[in-house]
Amino acid sequence: MSLEFALRPSSIEGIKRLADRIEREESIKRAEALERASRSAGFSNYAHARRSLAESPAPEARRHDLHITAYWHDLPTGEAGRETLVIALDHRLDELIVRRQFANNRHLLAFRRKESDHVEGKQVFGDQRSARKAVCGAARALHFIDATGLQPYSRSLVSPIERWQSDPLPGADHASTWRDAASGELVITDEPYRPAISSRDADRLAWAARHGLTLSASDWPGMYAPGAASSLHVLARDARLAQRVVGSTGRLRVCPVDETWTGTSAPSRPVYRSPVEAAGRKSVRAPRDPRLARSTATTTPYALVLSGHSRKPTGRMPLDAHDAVARDLRMAIGSAEYRPGVRERLDRVRSELDDWVQEEYDRQELGMERFSAMYYGALGTPFARRPTFTERSALLAAIDRIREQVGGHYPDCEPRRRLHRLIDLAARSAQSWQVEVD
């Protein structure tokens, strides 16, 4: 029995959830998955489903409470505690975002889904203010996702034009990439500080028009730093999509910031339980504090604000080797736009090595300009849906070089083996990528 025949959704949200499963299990594009899910619900296509279900009497809207918790421990003073903020959303958490997408957004990267009504920090923050800032940032991101239907696609910019490095959007800052869950189209959010672009509005609009893009500003302060005058701008190729996103954020009436904390502060123990957790029997544990962990012969614990706590191999890879690996990763990730099995696995390798290089070198050894361009600089040119044999060979050679550099500069340990497993899976996916004859 096919997945579509077995599940017959009766709402737009049900159609989207079925489309998620079809897209994931059959590796097809989002738009095609939505069409198939709509047909399984008895509609001719997704547009027909949206039109028909919109005309049906809507049930009374129900808000869903989501609990966001972060633990903190100030080592110099010995003080510790937890911060919890409860926000109300129009959709359930599991309808908005899947676990792996938390890593695709700077505000959600340090958090994890702990239960259907609970998001928790993966790390122990260094002080109360840091914990509150992180909770409020996660809350703003989830409000944005809830209002717009966008999903985190990448925590770095996926350039909407080929020449972004030589011709960037004037004044662009704190950009993020999102995917519209309904259409599969990409959307860029740009969040510069308002004073920095107050005299550049005309230049920014002209740039967008020159590249066939729509640039719109939202009345909602945005996600990055609303308390410090950042502003939210939406960039997309589809003007209607950009207008819908801006209109959705304009209707948001909340924008949590730590300066006006409205959450609950409490001792770190007992561990916080959301209502769903309290009703269940599963044991719950607070996140570990990596600052109290010990090094081993081959691994070293570390913690970063954005990526939480983890372990890396002892020692460090030379900066020239990091540069070489980063170039190959950017080339491979960019070229595999139509090969998720390669792109997503190597993107996880890139994220890990980006963390490792931050731990291995301070800002005197690794300047900010070099660091910013290293792993998250310009990506390679995308291959067609079917690359040529020569292109696939170049991709495989780049993956081989990545494996060789990582294996040659780090000791054998679980963090290195974890990267090697991802690299091997990416190579396997690349090897089976069907090619066109040169």
| Share of residues in strands | 15-25%
Number of strands: 12
Over all CA atoms, what is the radius of gyration? Answer: 23 Å
Shape: globular
Query: Order of strands across the widest beta sheet?
Result: 3-4-1-2-10
The topology string of helices and strands comes to: HHHHEEHEEHEEEHHEEHEHEEHHHHH
Helix content: 40-55%
Structural class label: alpha+beta
Oligomer: single chain
Low-confidence stretches: 1-7, 55-60
Main β sheet profile: 5 strands, mixed
Average pLDDT level: 88
Distance between the termini: 40 Å
Count of alpha and pi helical runs: 15
Descriptive labels:
438 residues, alpha+beta, 5-stranded mixed beta sheet, 16% strand, globular
How would you describe this protein?
- The chain is an alpha+beta fold and 438 residues long.
- It is 41% helix and 16% strand.
- It is built from 15 helices and twelve strands.
- The protein has helices at residues 3-6, 12-26, 30-40, 46-55, 93-96, 128-148, 194-197, 201-210, 239-250, 275-279, 319-335, 340-360, 368-374, 389-409, 414-431, and strands at residues 64-73, 80-89, 111-115, 118-125, 150-154, 176-180, 186-190, 214-217, 233-236, 264-266, 299-304, 308-313.
- It has a five-stranded mixed sheet with strand order 3-4-1-2-10, with helices on one face. The chain has a five-stranded antiparallel sheet with strand order 5-6-7-9-8.
- Strand 1 (64-73) and strand 2 form a beta hairpin.
- Helix 2 (12-26) packs across helix 3 and helix 14 (389-409) packs antiparallel against helix 15.
- The longest helix has 21 residues, at 128-148.
- It starts with a helix and ends in a 7-residue tail after the last helix.
